[in-house]
Specification:
It is built from 14 helices and 8 strands. The chain is an alpha+beta fold and about 425 residues long. A 4-stranded mixed beta sheet has the order 7-6-5-8. Strands 1-2 form a two-stranded antiparallel sheet. A two-stranded antiparallel ribbon has the order 3-4. A hairpin with a 2-residue loop joins strand 1 and strand 2 (about 105-110). The radius of gyration is 27 Å and the shape is globular.
Length: about 425
Amino acid sequence: MNPQPPLELVISGINTGNYRHKMMKAIRTVSEYLGVPMTARKMEHAHEPYFYAIQQELSDQWTGYYQGMLRRIYGTVIEALGLPPVEVETMRKALGDSGILKYRGRIIYNPETGEPLKNKDFDNLIEAIQKYLNRNTKELSKQILLDSMAIGKLLRRMAKYQSSAEMNRLKLDGLKYRGRTFDWIRQDIKNLNSVLGQPLSGPEMARYQAAQDYVAHLVTRSNQKIRDDIKDTVLRGIIEKRTKAQVSQDLFNRLGGLNRDWKRIADTEIVNTSNLAGILQEVNDAPKGERVYFKRYELPGCCSKCAKVNGVIALWSNTPLADDKIKDPYASVAIWEGKPQEKGRTVLVTGTLHPNCRGGWLRWGGKQADAMTAQVRGKAGKWDAAIEQAREEYRKQGTENPNDQTPGYIDRINELYRKKLGEEE
């Protein structure tokens, strides 16, 4: 029996619009070659990736903000109440220490008798925790919104004159635009306005202020829940006569759950704000009176819900509409700032469609392309080649580092890009 010749499988031209189809076709080919049945199993959705690593870096920075505070709070509470420390969230074996709980040398909790608190020191401890949280989260909502707004606008601008490879290598530490570092830009809205070269409009500022107020509300609610959960955990321990080890474990678990809640809050608001900032950057750059269209993108790893809307074209509306279904030559749906979700159906909004959603919008139908649109189309190589050729031309003319402010540079990149796409076709 002659062995089968080796199978060579080549998958080319993959982009966010066709990757599912191409992968299924490849699996089907292998299945037929091996003579084994092909089955498809739905995978549980976890975390959809961000478009660029720098966006994930910003998300990690803020979603992890509460983690350090909660660790310090946990350490303070267990030391004050004489609890044994717990290092892992899930423990299969109780520590078993049923000693008497003390605070500042005085008995406040006896798990054997369920003796009630003996003094007000515990309440003072809880209030001190509240003050600590308030002090360390005072400017939190403002900074999250400013960082998200800045990254959304800067990435859109930088993608117009940088290669896909350079965009993928961006880091917060070292990010510069017009000679200014991200650390400097994020210090104040005035700094962001100065590098953008145009102040944010009154309506746009009002949008961000409303978002900031909402995040501030969520921060206040999170702080209150931390305070209440700590108190509830200890008091329940007294009522249920739990050991000190068990109370410590309960406290550790509940704080861990609160940290996960905060991560969902922070991540969602970062995506929502950066998406909106990027969209408004494109709207502001569009010629006055021109209809502005956007195309939805979803990355490999998205859920089935997001995959269904990948590639949908939407018309931007400056004002809310009574119905998002529209009659238009290119788009069947409209999006606008503040467009709400609806229970029971997938509504296309500027931000997240669900927790851990990373999908976004790229300008469609405009005269200019950029690194992001090229990557979504699977044409990053053509874009990077156009960037390299345009830079070389400008270097020969005496401009060493051309950017989006260099006269004619963006137009030349796009001219070369279109030419390279034409050569390929």
